[in-house]
Amino acid sequence: MLKPILISSAVALLVSFSANAENIHFPEEIVPLQVGDKMLESSLFSRIDDVELAPGTYQLRLKYTDLYEDDYDTHEVVESEPFWVSVTVEAGKDYTLVFNRAENSVSAKVFAEAPQVSLKAKSSAVAKPLSVISNTQLASNKPVMQNILPAGPSRPSQPIKPIAPVTGKGMPSAPQMLDFWWQQATTTERKAFLEKVTK
């Protein structure tokens, strides 16, 4: 008697969790790296195939990587630079990211220079093309950490710049981080920093 109750409770719990988030499935050639400010951790042995998101609009950072057989015994890996797309997730819909896979490594290199991906709802026959967001558009539309820093007269009045673009390792470079924090520092903090580094 207790066993059926426990099983039905577990099923109800799983259903309630899945009701709060929608799923985007990624083909193995498209690697999700980041959702907004959140980095996604993956490796050769634990790759991310699915990302669950609440309904809303998100910026996704993706990378294209594919393996092509050149001859009988040689292979070539074709990769793109990381790129950003804007995705709108609707409630009650699961999605698949789709693209036209190139037939050979030459075509794949052309695709890697300007990736084109689409988002297809699993219940739909038509995929919606996603436009790639340039780094300049991302910098002007995405104020990173704006709600985290305290507001007040001691902070500079200029807008907070995002830490972008990021290096190939998925992290901002040291000069970009220094510039970002310099822009956030008060005059007193800047003076104390300069005194420290010039000693």
Tell me what you see in this structure.
The structure is a single chain. Helices cover 28% and strands 28% of the residues. It contains five helices and eleven strands. It has helices at 2-19, 105-113, 135-141, 174-184, 187-197, and strands spanning 22-25, 30-35, 38-39, 50-53, 56-69, 75-79, 83-89, 95-98, 117-121, 128-130, 132-133. The model is unreliable at 4-18 and 143-170 (pLDDT under 50).
Radius of gyration, in Å, reads 22 Å
Largest sheet: 6 strands, antiparallel
Oligomer: single chain
Strand content: 25-35%
Helix content: 25-40%
Number of strands: 11
Distance between the termini: 75 Å
Query: How many separate helices?
Result: 5
In one word, what is the shape? extended
Structural class: alpha+beta
Order of helices and strands: HEEEEEEEEHEEEHHH
**Would you identify the regions where 5 or more consecutive residues have pLDDT less than 50?**
4-18, 143-170
Q: If you average the pLDDT, what whole number results?
A: 75
